[in-house]
């Protein structure tokens, strides 16, 4: 949780016009949905992804802000929480090339702890999330944009399986468990998205 709080605090401080820039900056928003594709020990997978970027235009070419959304890895739901930067190479053209970099944390806040009939406890913890994107955006008559992008996304999370020794075990105390195994799992994804930017 400390990672999430640090990302929130840094994003709010850097994106806030009163703290960072001394004057109000134009707001920008970019929402996208698409497909995550990757391969792991279970085989090839294709999953749904949605993300939304909210930030401020630092200049005609650069924007900085906060990204969140939802990534679905089969039955696992991951909520990305990240600082995000966008840059546009040719902002005067109708068809514009842009790039993006997102660094943060993938939260498993939507995932409950599962207790089996043998009293085995299973839960997920989030981890590092990083993503780099390149895309095209098409300017509309209202100076908004339709977008299409291709990304590489790396998501780490941890799966814990444990058997308790006490009635109310604490996940942070290994001595409360007779068996405690924590596995690190990494998802490497190629992502295709369609979106709308204003």
Question: Keyphrases for this structure?
Answer:
198 residues, 10 strands, Porin, mainly beta
Detailed description of the structure:
This protein has 198 residues and is mainly beta. The chain has one domain: Porin. The chain is 9% helix and 65% strand. The protein has an eight-stranded antiparallel beta barrel with strand order 1-2-3-4-5-8-9-10. A hairpin with a 2-residue loop joins strand 1 and strand 2. About 5% of the residues have low confidence.
Can you give me a brief rundown of this structure?
By secondary structure, the protein is mainly beta. The protein is 9% helix and 65% strand. It has one domain (29-197): Porin.
Order of helices and strands: HHEEEEEEEEEE
User: N- to C-terminal separation?
Assistant: 31 Å
CATH architecture: Beta Barrel
Strand fraction:
over 45%
In one word, what is the shape?
A: elongated
Question: Given this structure, which CATH class is correct?
Answer: Mainly Beta
Instruction: Classify the helix fraction into a percent range.
Output: under 10%
What Rg, in angstroms, do the CA atoms define?
Answer: 20 Å
Q: What fold name stands as the CATH topology?
A: Porin
How confident is the prediction overall: mean pLDDT?
Answer: 87
Kindly name the structural category: mainly beta
Protein name: Outer membrane protein beta-barrel domain-containing protein
């Amino acid at each position: 949780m400390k990672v999430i709080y640090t990302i929130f605090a840094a994003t709010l401080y850097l994106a806030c016009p009163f703290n960072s820039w001394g004057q109000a900056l134009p707001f920008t928003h970019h929402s996208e949905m698409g497909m995550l594709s990757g391969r792991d020990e279970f085989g090839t997978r294709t999953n749904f992804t949605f993300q939304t970027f909210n930030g401020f235009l630092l200049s005609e070419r650069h924007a900085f802000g906060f990204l969140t959304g939802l990534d679905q890895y089969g039955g696992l739901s991951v909520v990305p929480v990240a600082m995000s930067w966008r840059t546009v190479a040719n902002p005067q053209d109708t068809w514009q090339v842009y790039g993006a970099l997102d660094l943060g944390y993938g939260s498993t806040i939507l995932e409950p702890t599962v207790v089996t009939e043998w009293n085995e406890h299973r839960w997920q913890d989030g981890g590092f999330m990083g993503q780099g994107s390149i895309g095209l955006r098409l300017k509309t008559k209202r100076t908004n944009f339709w977008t299409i992008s291709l990304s590489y996304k790396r998501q780490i999370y941890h799966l814990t399986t444990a058997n308790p020794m006490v009635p109310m075990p604490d996940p942070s105390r290994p001595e409360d468990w007779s068996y405690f195994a924590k596995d690190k799992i990494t998802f490497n994804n190629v992502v295709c998205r369609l979106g709308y930017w204003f």
